[in-house]
Amino acid sequence: MPSAETTRASVHEPELVRPTKEDEVAASGSELIGGPIGRRALPGTSWWTPVRIVALIAIGMFALGMVQKLPCYDGGWFFGASSQYTHACYSDIPHLYQGRGFADGLVPYFDKIPGDMDYLEYPVLTGVFMEVAAWLTPGSGSIQDQEQIYWMVNAGMLMVCAAVIAVCTARTHRRRPWDGLLVALAPAFALTATINWDLLAVALLAAAMLMWSRGRVLAFGVLIGLATAAKFYPFLVLGPLFLLCWRAGKWREFGTALLGAVGAWLAVNLPVMYFAPEGWAKFYSFSHDRGVDFGSVFLFISQWLKITITFQAANNWALIMMLLICVGLTALTLTAPRRPRFAQLAFLIVAAFILTNKVYSPQYVLWLVPLAALARPRWRDFLIWQACEVAYFLGIWMYLAYTTSGDAHKGLPTDGYQVAIAVHLLGTLYLCAVVVRDIFMPDRDMVRRAGDDDPSGGVLDGAEDVFVLGAAAHPPRHAAHFDGPQVEWGSQSAAAGDSSP
């Protein structure tokens, strides 16, 4: 029996949303562990809270992803180009240990790297992450041993990032901690987590989303600045936030967030920018000058039509498409019958950047997983998208196996790889489409259908609109507006501290 203190404290906690009650796929999946919880159960009284369960599952799935890389760890990274592709266990991490001078003790951005690259082509905070891992890697033994240890050290550091992402996602929506399982159990997340260092930026952005949801505006801005210092894409979420703050009249909060982001980014970048300008600029020049690459819509068009698309043309078309999408998101935000949720627009802008980019590395799916869990927490749609991403994950490695296996032609030919790219593009577009539908039809949004307004919105949650266009601007202007959680705080379920899935 729960103690009197526990019962009294839980009365003030909101009733948690149970996905097994609102999602048929979650209900069916729960049969593996005994089925949906019964109405007479008294959850929330043990150490096994939803957030802890989500964190442990995320760590377990990450460990399974490490096991999947075992064939490469045992030699595939070193003794043959094609075997790391046929086993789908490729990782940049061991290759760049020597290829970017870490094995020789070179300092990123300051020391030139032998070869064509000259300097490390990653943003500063990611370079710091890579350098710290190099410090923790013993310099003795063969280069193969060192690369194995370097990958293992990075994997340990990235596992911490994965746990942070899962916990932050679970805590962003106070009443929906079980949505963190979408991140923890995402198959593409486990498969791609140790390909590169993207999880650092993803973790910082997930922490920023949590801070914004709790009204900690400056902390959000600082974390966005740090995330942008690790990867460019997190800065994009400030665009949707600007639109939402415009509609709600929250200019002071947006200004604080923007100043925090710019200040944090400058604090990380200015020292390197000043003392090693050429090395610092390498990431930006490389991003601008690189050609059309794997996974992109431009490569699909180039291979399908058998034409050459220069990097200048790809840059121009990518910019035009992103500008058009931004115009569309502006119209969507300001004319929607109800102000969109922050997570919905954050997902859409990052997805747009991925879809219009001139390269799509398989680990880029990590950018979207936590945002998708917040934007559209429905297992059916999430798993459809994940199936498409797993298909692309296998497709790119099989295609590389085909191109590196010589006359043996082991793997997937160009026509098959085009199908894999199309599957990835269509899967992402599908998830974007259902998110846009939720914005136009708020009654289809699972978060709002459960009685919330914008739990990731922080100061935007339940705020009045001050600038609206289109039909939503005419009376009754706030007829569908939400003024607070529709929860009976003194209900029996709230008093029981319900925390079951």
TrEMBL record:
Transmembrane segments annotated in the record for this chain: 47-67, 149-170, 182-212, 218-244, 256-274, 294-311, 318-336, 342-361, 382-400, 420-440
Major location (coarse): membrane
Key word RNA-binding present: no
Region Disordered: start-end pairs: 1-23, 477-501
GO cellular component: plasma membrane
Membrane topology qualifier: Multi-pass membrane protein
Basic and acidic residues biased stretches: 10-23
This protein's record includes keyword Transmembrane: yes
GO molecular function: hexosyltransferase activity
Cellular location(s): Cell membrane
Keyword terms of this UniProt record: Cell membrane, Membrane, Transferase, Transmembrane, Transmembrane helix
Ranges annotated as biased composition (Polar residues): 489-501
Family listed: Belongs to the glycosyltransferase 87 family.
UniProt-recorded name of the protein: Membrane protein
Organism: Streptomyces albiflavescens
